[in-house]
Amino acid sequence: MVDLGITSEHLRNYLDYIAAAAVFIASIPVGILVRNIVRRYVVRVAPRDIAIGLSKLAYYVVVVIGFFLALGVLNVDLTGVAILGGFVGVAVGFASQTVVSNLLSGIFLYFDRPLKIGDPVQVEGYGGVVSDIGIFSTRIRSWDGVYVRVPNEKVFNAILLNYTTTVARRVEYKVTISYRDDAERAKDVIMKVMEEHPLILAEPEPMVYVEDLGDSGVVLNVRFWAPISLWFQLKTEMLWKVKKALEDAGIEIPYPQRVVWLHQAG
Fold first, then answer.
1. Cis-peptide, bond into residue 204, ω within 30° of zero
2. What is the pLDDT of residues 92-148, one digit of tens each?
3. How far, in Å, CA of 119 to CA of 109, rounded?
4. How confident is the model at residue 1 (pLDDT cuts 50, 70, 90)?
5. For residues 128 and 141, is the Cβ–Cβ distance under 8 A?
6. Beta bridge partners of 177
7. The 3-state secondary structure of 114-181, one letter per residue
8. Span 73-108, pLDDT tens digits
9. What distances in angstroms separate CA 118 from CA 131, 213, 249, one per listed residue?
């Protein structure tokens, strides 16, 4: 009989290695199963990209647990591993703090719904149309066509202006007329222009009133409300109509003026 030199201790070590490998390998299909379950249930209440991110996180957690269980089967002293893992965890924690914060903020944004794709908004000083709401960041196409990526943490904590949350929005102008002209007549001319426009809302009603007596003339405040989808169109259109109506009525929109008094000695 040939002696292979395999002692009971060697055999036990081999069996421990096989068992450890089996535990680690078994954690992979278990992780896949957990990943699929998490994705299936989370996708019902959250966007697909958030569901995918959380399911991947669940998979890696299961595999890491399987790795440490495999080390336990080999009777490896996990004290040193724990210390090393602690240092690594702290380093990764600092590095991933922003990532996790953006991930959670993305989830909170989904449930809070302060904005959606296609909304004209202003956030963190950037104005434009929301083009995408991802798991880590929100992308905005600015008014001049530049794409801006804003981390979800910033979006969630920012003072956000969403211009589509109401059905109507106010337009306001400051119009200056000459002191020589009749302010009441100018008000009537502007009111007529607004009342004749079919898209300007009758309620709240348009307003024109004297706001200030400026250096160069009488300052009129012109206000009206427009449907949110037509706000910018009406704002640009009506400013020109008001100017033309005042000109046709012979009411002057003055240039900046200064009165200079010259004192002559003697």
1. yes
2. 454 456 666 776 777 777 777 788 888 888 888 888 899 888 777 888 998 888 889
3. 14
4. very low
5. yes
6. 218
7. CCCCCCEEEECCEEEEEEEECCCEEEEEECCCCEEEEEHHHHHHCCCEECCCCCEEEEEEEEEECCCC
8. 777 765 655 555 555 555 445 445 666 677 677 777
9. 6, 42, 42
Structurally, at CATH architecture level, domain 8-112 sits in Orthogonal Bundle (1.10)
Which helix (H) or strand (E) segment is 224 a member of?
strand 218-227
**Tokens for 33?**
């199963």
3-class state of residue 212 by DSSP: strand
**The CATH number of domain 168-248 is 3.30.70.100:** yes
Contact present, 226 and 237 (Cβ < 8 Å)? no
Strands 161-162 and 147-151: unpaired
DSSP 203: S
> What letters, b where the CB count within 10 A reaches 16 and e where it falls short, cover 222-256?
bebbbeeeebeebbeebeeebeebbeeeebebbee
Please state the domain extents for the chain. Answer: 8-112, 120-162, 168-248
Query: What's the rounded Cα separation, in Å, for the pair 53 and 50?
Result: 5
CATH of domain 120-162: 2.30.30.60
Distance CA 53, CA 43 (A): 11
Would 8-112 and 168-248 be classified into the same CATH topology?
no
Q: Using one digit for the tens of pLDDT, what is the confidence trace for 178-211?
A: 999 999 999 999 999 999 999 999 888 999 999 9
